[in-house]
């Protein structure tokens, strides 16, 4: 069973908003899957798999944002999977390019 700090428990209980609660539920579930017994504090993060890969990925990110989820440490993302300025040269459909920019 995973041991949570007071802060982690408060996030999981929704005291920092529904978006943070959703994120903490995912983190704690993954910790359980991997047999982790506690979480560690961080001072920076990289958000992987943030590329547009279809509507589900965009809808999930927008849902978290609409629920007030925000990063609380300095964070980086992957580069875009679409050329921001020359996407037309690669035969990328306009709606795909628009969604990738969101």
UniProtKB/TrEMBL annotation:
Keywords, in A-Z order: Iron, Lyase
Matching Pfam families: AcnX
GO molecular function, a single term: lyase activity
Protein name: Phosphomevalonate dehydratase large subunit-like domain-containing protein
InterPro entries: PMDh-L-like_dom (IPR007506)
Keyword Iron tagged: yes
Organism: marine sediment metagenome
Phosphomevalonate dehydratase large subunit-like domain: residues covered: 2-101
């Amino acid at each position: 069973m995973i041991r949570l700090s007071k802060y982690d428990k408060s996030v999981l209980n929704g005291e920092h908003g529904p978006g943070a609660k959703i994120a903490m539920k995912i983190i704690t579930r993954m910790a359980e899957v991997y047999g982790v017994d506690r979480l560690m504090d961080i001072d920076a993060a990289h958000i992987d798999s943030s590329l547009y890969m279809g509507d589900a990925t965009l809808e999930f990110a927008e849902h978290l944002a609409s629920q007030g989820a925000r990063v609380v440490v300095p964070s980086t993302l992957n580069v875009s999977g679409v050329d921001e300025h020359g996407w037309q040269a690669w035969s990328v459909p306009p709606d795909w390019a628009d969604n990738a920019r969101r």
